[in-house]
Amino acid sequence: MSLGSILAFLAGIGVVIGSIVSATDRPLAFIDIPSMIIVVGGTVVTLFISYEAKNAVHALKLMLSAFKRHGDSENSLKDEIGRIVRWAYIIQKNGLQGLENEITDSLREDNPFLAYGADLVVTGYTGAEIKQILEHTLESQAERDRRPTDALKKMGGDAPAFGMLGTLIGLVIMLSNMGGDPSAIGPSMAVALITTFYGIILARIIFIPLATKVAARNDVTIFKNIMQMEGLVLLAERKSPRYIQDKINSFVDSEEQFLIDRDLNNTSSSSSEN
Question: Nearest CA to 94 among 82, 86, 106?
């Protein structure tokens, strides 16, 4: 699990609850089941109306996955550069058969894009052909990732709207009963406004932040894949390991750059341990 995401989410909820508790001696007044049903139910219903069922379900699952660890955000790109440089040495020594032996089941599971690109190199495609194929792969993947992210953003826009709808319903009910006890107007007004409160909370603490986080993670993965694509193209062109090192190092900060003279032995030993 992503500890930072969980702590930030709990802190956001804590700020809201703390503010309520410190401002009133009746915090339970902020709990209203019909209001929750209007906001949550209405937002989910419009999600399934707006998108195909599989995309809507995927968007809901993304809310949970955002609290999980994201390897591409946590792992250093230096290791990826080192892997490609090491592959260049393997190709120099053993040819494409040596690279084929590096495409293990664990690599296909952990990094399917890199494994797919390595398969293309082993097949014998030219660098230009590999770049064209992988660019199409990245474009289609970006499009697939965009749909559920847009769905989450839409939920962030719909939740306050349904909150306002619930408020309007509450106001209509309140105004229709104004001929009765005037002292009941205040509590009725409070209940009417709670739905707007729920809509804003869902939008600003859950849907929109999670959509932003997922989009940012997708950007990190795409950047890593672009860097890997460049390395795979250079492997197909049989460029020297040092040229590959210098070319791919241009993608990253100086702290994450891979240097053959300093890091190659460490990369080889860690790879053999895995």
Answer: 86
CB atoms within 10 A of CB 164: 14
The 10s digit of each residue's pLDDT in 75-112 is 889 999 999 999 999 999 999 999 999 999 999 999 99
Helices H / strands E in the chain, number of each:
14, 0
Q: What is the pLDDT of residues 135-145, one digit of tens each?
A: 999 999 999 88
* C-alpha–C-alpha distance, residues 49 and 166, integer Å: 20
User: What does the DSSP assignment read for 200-232?
Assistant: HHIIIIIIHHHHHHHHHHHHHHHHHHHHHHHHH
CB 208 within 8 A of CB 156: yes
Q: d(Cα 233, Cα 263) in Å, to the nearest integer? A: 22
- Measure the CA–CA gap between 54 and 23, rounded to whole angstroms: 43
What number of other Cβ atoms are within 10 A of residue 50's Cβ? 14
Q: What is the C-alpha separation between 38 and 207, in angstroms, rounded?
A: 16
150 near 214, Cβ under 8 Å? no
- Please state the pTM of the whole predicted model: 0.83
